[in-house]
Amino acid sequence: MSVSFKSSRMAKISRRSRSNAVSAIALRAVLDSGKTLYRVAKDAGITYSALYPFVHGKRMLSLEGFDKLCAYLGLTLKPEREEK
């Protein structure tokens, strides 16, 4: 997934979230959606007050909220390798 940021502020937000690859992918998908945070939150079924701090690197989403956000964005997790 190639990411282009519209502002240096969004680039700074992205750099802060690189420590957790899964949340960084979700963050990039939110930012690349071209939708407002309010619209993403509403369509995903989570609150804006939960999404905003996640996007700005202040707080993580709950597991339920993260599941809803990933489902809305069409993101899934797959194991990197097969278990033996």
Q: Based on the structure given, which CATH architecture is correct?
A: Orthogonal Bundle
CATH fold category name? 434 Repressor (Amino-terminal Domain)
Q: Main β-sheet, in a few words?
A: none
Q: What is the N-to-C succession of helices and strands?
A: HHHHH
The number of distinct structural domains comes to 1
| Protein structure class | mainly alpha
- How much helix is in the residues? 55-70%
Radius of gyration: 13 Å
Could you give the count of β-strands? 0
Mean pLDDT over all positions: 82
Main CATH class: Mainly Alpha
Bin the strand percentage. Answer: under 5%
Give the overall form: elongated
List low-pLDDT spans.
1-6
What can you tell me about this protein's structure?
With 84 residues, the chain is mainly alpha-helical. The protein has one domain: 434 Repressor (Amino-terminal Domain), CATH 1.10.260. Helix content is 57%, strand content 0%. It has five helices and no strands. It is elongated and about 45 Å long.
